[in-house]
Design brief:
Layout: H1 4-23, H2 29-45, E1 60-63, H3 69-79, E2 82-84, E3 90-94, H4 98-102, H5 132-151, E4 163-168, H6 169-173, H7 175-187, E5 192-198, E6 201-202, E7 205-206, H8 215-222, E8 225-229, H9 235-247, E9 253-258, H10 271-275, H11 280-290, H12 304-333, H13 335-346, E10 363-368, H14 369-383, E11 387-391, H15 395-398, E12 419-421, H16 426-438, E13 442-448, H17 452-465, E14 470-474, H18 492-497, E15 503-505, H19 510-521, E16 528-531, E17 536-539, E18 556-559, E19 568-572, H20 576-589, E20 594-598, H21 602-606, H22 610-616, E21 624-631, H23 636-639, E22 644-648, H24 657-664, H25 668-686
Parallel strand pairs: 1-4, 4-5, 5-9, 8-9, 11-12, 11-13, 13-14, 14-16, 15-16, 19-20, 19-21, 21-22
Antiparallel strand pairs: 2-3, 6-7, 10-17, 18-20
Helix pairs in contact: 1-2, 1-3, 1-11, 2-3, 2-9, 2-12, 5-7, 5-16, 7-16, 12-13, 14-19, 16-17, 20-25
Amino acid sequence: MIDLDTLSVNTIRGLCMDAVQKARSGHPGTPMGMAPVAYTLWQKFLRFDPADPIWPNRDRFVLSEGHASALLWSLLYLSGVRAVDPDYEVLGRPAVTLDDLKSFRQLDSRCPGHPEYRWTSGVEATTGPLGQGVATSVGMAIAGQWLAARFNRDDFTLFDFDVYALAGDGCMMEGISSETASLAGHLKLSNLCWIYDSNRVTIEGHTDITFTEDVAARFLAYGWNVTTVADANDLDQVNRALHTFRAETTRPTLILVHSHIGYGSPVEDSPKAHGAPLGPEGVKATKRFLGIPPDADFHVPDGLHDWFARGIGARGAESRTDWEKTFEAYRGLHPGLADELERIQRRELPEGWENVLPAFPADPKGLASRDSSGQVLEAIAQAVPWILGGSADLTPSTRTRLAFDGAGDFQPDDRSGRNLHLGVREHASAAVANGMALTKLRPYWSGFLIFSDYAKAAIRLSALMEIPTVHIFTHDSIGVGEDGPTHQPVEQLAGLRSTPGLLVFRPADANEVVEMWRVVAALRHEPAALVLSRQALPTFDRSRLGEAGGVARGAYILADAPSGEPEVILLATGSEVSLAMAAYEELTADGIACRVVSMPCWELFDRQPQDYRDDVLPPAVPTRVAVEEASTLGWDRYVGDRGAVVGMHTFGASAPLKQLLRRFGFTPERVSQVARELVAHGKERAT
């Protein structure tokens, strides 16, 4: 008689085969090959309550090889994981039903082609781009260590969760896995376990053609504990390896598992099993080999749901119930910390946090927006203890180091520090911040805008997951000067703005920075990119100009024509707003009715009611000039076919700032000239 462990593993394999075959799309091989490992982890080790999949101290499981999503969907279905709504309320319905599995990869299915956070409960992170899952898991592990340092007290262990990530050969090839493995080894994240599915097959064929390094030796060099499972089907070996991880207290662990892709299938260990359905006859033959009724699709033997309920279900419920009892006792002794923890889970901020926001007096010399942003961040971080972050080795330049008493550095010997040192690792920095945000902390990371390209994949995922990661970028334009075109961003703003769901801010002065942070700190389901200057920006006199609170609406009237009926509108962001103001003074002195609109966040402006947008940019005034030291792509939506854009059409150059501004036309005279020409053309058309 077949034992329940083997029956469970083969049932998972059967569900995965059937889901892929019915969809005629997907990857059956990896789910089949790694079913024994994933099953053992979930049924025997994972502290996860299917009835409450967002319990704060649950273990995290990240499927980094996201193409194997059928494996996760089968586990969620068999475990009976409950659904959670966007307000973090547990619903009565299951996260994944058998009908969902049958509609794998189909429109609106809860079982999409790759795991999607916030779409299917039980998915801890959106994965698919290889390497992103393991990288994100490092941020989760950091968050777990920080939460333990912040909240645990004698006799009260609120946080001790582990983070598991299932990775494949492709994950190990991607550079981001090396970046984050190096960081995790340095930080000695002993609550982190990567399970490496070494099946030696990728789309193009056997890994011998591309990937022959000694992965175990590499991870030993990173400072990891490395253990090997010679056969993924040997459940005893898998058990021993997971116990080895549990016993490790000073290093992250890599479990290197030798598996056979498409175990038991007629195309075992072939690229076909990796990336295509097995075909009707292949599925039947495999089912016969595994002891599954060959003509029974999506077959689940009687009693198997109960078996999972007695395993992961009972263990998870007991762990969660014990935690809730502990937390209630903790609340009585530490009410302030308990309130913090509840706010973290709801993504809420402390009462009165906005009272710490500074106000900056008018100053023609002003501040670089990186400097004013650093001051505002310092104030907010003291009011919101779960804001923490760092930079990709550029903290002195990005002004993101928290310097108040007790801020400290997060290091192996101090897990309470609020400052992270992420090294020269932009891609890793963004992914780590995502992992921290997924654990409900409020993280930020920073770097130069030009290097946002290195991090773009993780930035995109923060928007896709709808998590409030804060991406801070300084050195925002050709204003970098002598560093030259390699360091002068041109197309990066357009790239960031093209990302759905990402709020991109480029503030014009210190008070716009304040209002930007007022919006960003309170975000719950959106990431933001803050684009800040190295050079000083004048602080505008708000007693005679528009209020900086207009930042919350994305764009606002900063200065208007005396009559309120402009002939021409100047639109600008960041440092170019003061340039537009200088042109405004020239045009007004010449009797040309002019309006200046500051547009710090296009995305917020586009969400405003039509009447507000028409008030700021009246359709009756098509004569418009946009000014920005960046690619002109996208500005046409605001200036129309009768407007013009003073922007960048080439890369920059190495020279002092003033020379660059003259070379590329960012002067009041040039902006005024363009505006005058448009006004004159408009009058000609009118006659």
